[in-house]
Design goal:
The structure holds 2 protein chains of 2 kinds. By secondary structure, chain A is mainly alpha-helical. Chain A is built from 17 helices and 5 strands. Classes of the chains: A mainly alpha, B alpha/beta. At the A-B interface, helix 1 and helix 6 of A face strand 3, helix 1, helix 2 and helix 4 of B.
Chain lengths: 396, 243
């Protein structure tokens, strides 16, 4: 049973003082974290059973092609985790980077942490990442999987007896069963809130700025709004919590965390530059995965977020691809412009020439388009679609 | 295939299939067995699966032991594969996943004749599924003739579930107690062809006990190409339950 962090982010960029402008002042610490006993072994039939399942799951996850095993990236994330929850705690966790464009992270009861690349694309600094990793660790330390499993079992057992008793006595028990199921979802939401509070405590006791956690949820809501607007749906930003929601609403999470941050001071560092450096070589891959989600509004919003301090070649290339994929005539014109800009800014991505060529050919500039394709074929003579592209280049 | 007119369960589900013309002469094959997927637990009153680590461990040991015994009587050599590391592990993981996907497809689209795909509907259409020749890349496959995949899941009905079953029966409602399903598949280590698959949603044998596991393995290997092993009198070994 995995606990997922929840979907979605986004953020009206807070007028942050430029990262790195000043060394963060030493924080007034909330409190030292309570001591942690490492190498916890599961107790009792239920917990041992759950851990056993989680161990099997981890075996298959470990060798899965969906996991990015790059040692440098993994070491970096582990360092942030250890800086967040402390060296003694992070020893209990194995961290796996899962290549999935969703904003998510998850924790198995045995200390397997799943970090989704979609989350890495969206958080902007180490402080925000610390909040997410801390949330997952909170689930682990409070043994939420076990409590959730037990709650689910006792609820379903009771519902069974209630149903039987009702059937024997001719009483309709469906309403009661329904509210019990609602209680189960509420239980899950309470666990998520507890994990958020836990994460806040870890981050407050670490070198990072604890208030960063709220920014994540604000951005998630903005991104969801951008997606909804593009698809002609209504915003769900101010919806009340729904009956079957597994998590509190993003608004509630943001509000709670914001209040905690106001109360406990905003000291600590964001380490945005360090984060950007660590993600630089991965961002093109994460962006390419994001574009495949067929979410024009959300992707466009996200690109604007990432480009807050200037459009770098990889962002321009991603934006060009996004527009070319939607493929309206006006989009192709815009895409060609973005490709050209990316190339002018020194994009090392050969695909920029291919995309530019295709966009130009389709928007009535075959001569320039063929030249761009020829450039691409010069860079990538053995690419998969070389014969087809050559035929396009040779067409008169 | 037209179903035989013997009494079949209402679902009219077939349980196993064999690739056309495939026989496995006794005493010839080297069979590679990968870590069997075994899940054993209880079924709660409400019907949830409650994993049990001890039962799972016992069952895993018992099944491997029973399997070796059953195969030894046929004369085949069963080699339990080492857990690979590095790129080899990724290859194995992909093929395990592929096998599970293909096996599910066989169960869905072959064993339920109503679901047969158009090309497999024709009379006499062959049982023809493959994982592709890439199976040769699986670590250890080069020294083997066949690869055996095993997967069983058991949930023993808890006391509460059994009592609930009785109460429900009093109302004329049938609820099941316990889930016992498993499948076994044999893949040709050279071509990747699935030569035999046996899947059963209702299996017998208590895998937590040595002789129960022997019974389960006998059922899993029913219609195993070559011959069916007779249920062996396996000495009930003492050391199964390590509490």
């Amino acid at each position: 049973m995995r606990r997922a962090l929840a979907r979605l982010i986004a953020l009206a960029a807070l007028p942050l003082a430029l990262a790195g402008a000043a060394e963060a002042a030493p924080k007034a610490r909330l409190a030292a974290l309570p001591p942690y006993a490492g190498a916890y072994q599961p107790q009792g039939v239920d917990e041992r059973g759950l851990w056993n399942e989680a161990d099997e799951g981890e075996r298959s996850l470990r060798d899965s092609p969906a996991v990015i095993a790059d040692p440098e990236l993994n070491a970096y994330l582990r360092r942030v985790l250890c800086d967040t929850v402390g060296a003694d705690r992070c020893g209990a966790v194995r961290l796996y980077v899962v290549r999935s464009a969703e904003f998510n992270a998850a924790m198995a009861p045995n200390g397997t942490m799943y970090v989704f690349t979609g989350m890495l694309l969206r958080v902007r600094n180490e402080a925000e990442l610390a909040a997410v990793l801390g949330h997952e660790f909170g689930h682990f330390e409070e043994r939420h999987s076990l409590a959730g499993f037990k709650a689910q079992r006792s609820t379903s057992d009771f519902a069974m007896w209630l149903g039987l008793a009702g059937a024997y006595t001719g009483v309709d028990t469906r309403a009661t069963t329904g509210s019990m199921i609602g209680g189960l979802f509420a239980f899950n939401r309470d666990q998520e809130s507890a994990a958020d509070r836990r994460a806040f405590e870890y981050v407050a006791a670490s070198r990072y700025r604890a208030g960063a956690a709220a920014d994540v949820w604000a951005r998630m809501m903005d991104e969801a709004d951008a997606t909804a607007a593009q698809r002609g749906q209504r915003s769900r930003r101010y919806d009340r919590v729904s009956f079957f929601a597994s998590h509190p609403t993003n608004l509630e999470r943001e509000t709670t965390l914001r209040a905690l941050a106001v109360k406990n001071g905003e000291g600590g560092e964001d380490a945005a530059d360090a984060y950007a450096t660590a993600m630089a070589q991965w961002r093109p891959l994460f962006l390419a995965d994001q574009l495949k989600r067929n979410d024009f509004g959300g992707s466009e919003y996200l690109l604007h977020q990432l480009a807050a301090d200037g459009w770098s070649p990889d962002l321009l290339f991603a934006r060009a691809e996004l527009y070319r994929m939607r493929g309206n005539p006006r989009d192709l014109v815009a895409a060609a412009g973005f490709y050209r800009e990316a190339i002018a800014k020194g994009s090392a991505e050969p695909l920029a020439h291919k995309g530019l060529g295709l966009a130009l050919i389709r928007s009535g500039q075959p001569g320039e388009g063929r030249a761009a394709l020829a450039e691409y074929l010069k860079l990538k003579p053995d690419c998969e679609d070389a014969p087809m592209l050559r035929s396009l280049v040779q067409q008169q | 295939m037209v179903l035989a007119s013997v009494a079949t369960p209402a679902s009219a589900q077939e349980k196993s299939a064999l690739r056309d013309g495939f026989t496995l002469p006794p005493g010839s094959a080297r069979i590679l067995l990968f870590r069997p997927k075994v899940r054993v637990g209880a079924q709660s009153t409400g019907g949830m699966f409650e994993p049990n680590a001890d039962w799972t461990d016992q069952a895993k040991r018992n099944i491997v032991t029973a399997l070796a015994t059953a195969q030894a009587r046929l004369g085949h050599g069963i080699v339990v594969a080492e857990e690979p590391v590095g790129p080899a592990a990724a290859t194995l993981a992909s093929y395990r996943a592929l096998f599970a996907t293909v096996a599910d497809a066989v169960i869905t689209f072959q064993f339920f004749p109503g679901n047969r795909l158009p090309t497999k509907k024709r009379k006499g259409a062959a049982f023809d599924w493959t994982l592709g020749e890439g199976v040769r890349d699986i670590p250890g496959a080069d020294g083997a003739d066949y690869i055996l995949f095993l997967d069983t899941q058991d949930a023993f009905g808890s006391t509460g579930r059994k009592v609930a079953q009785i109460f429900a029966a009093g109302l004329g409602v049938g609820i099941t107690s316990g889930v016992h399903s498993g499948y076994a598949g044999l893949v040709d280590a050279r071509t990747g062809d699935l030569v035999w698959l046996n899947a059963d949603r209702q299996m017998g044998g208590d895998v937590r006990e040595a002789d129960g596991a022997a019974k389960r393995v006998t059922q899993l290997l029913e219609d195993f190409p070559g011959s069916t092993p007779a249920p062996a009198a396996i000495p009930a070994s003492a050391g199964t339950a390590a509490r």
